[in-house]
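haha ok so turns out i had the wrong file open the whole time. this is the CORRECT one, sorry everyone. sequence first:
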Amino acid sequence: MLSSRYMVSNKNLPAIFQKIQDGAAPEKFTMAHLKGIGFTSSNDQGALPVLKDLKLLAPDGTPTKRYHAYRDKSQAKRVLGEALREAYEDLFHINEHPTEADRPAIVGRFKSTHNATDLVADRQAATFFALLKLADLSPGK
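then structure:
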């Protein structure tokens, strides 16, 4: 599996994930909720499909068991690492612990898997790397 979702700008991604941990879980995580917690830029709208592909949100926007597990700061990084391994499984065949050195191969995988343009593949890779910084890929307990 390889998620095709991406954000135009990943600048607010860490803050969005921080808000997930700090705030109460909404009944539905929607664009209105995202705006309500302070993310009003159109660049932030891509967070919703990304959260759905990570299975933090159900297709209808309902927070999942994984979303609630992520809210526990003691296990959040591991929970996100597990989500990344599922949503971006194909990239972990390139390298079990991807680094910036793997970026050209990762961009290439997005291009070939999703028939993406250079720009879209770069954004897909940038979103993946932004998420990777927030995750712990160590095997779970």
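Residues 14 and 133 are 9 Å apart (CA to CA).
again sry for the mixup
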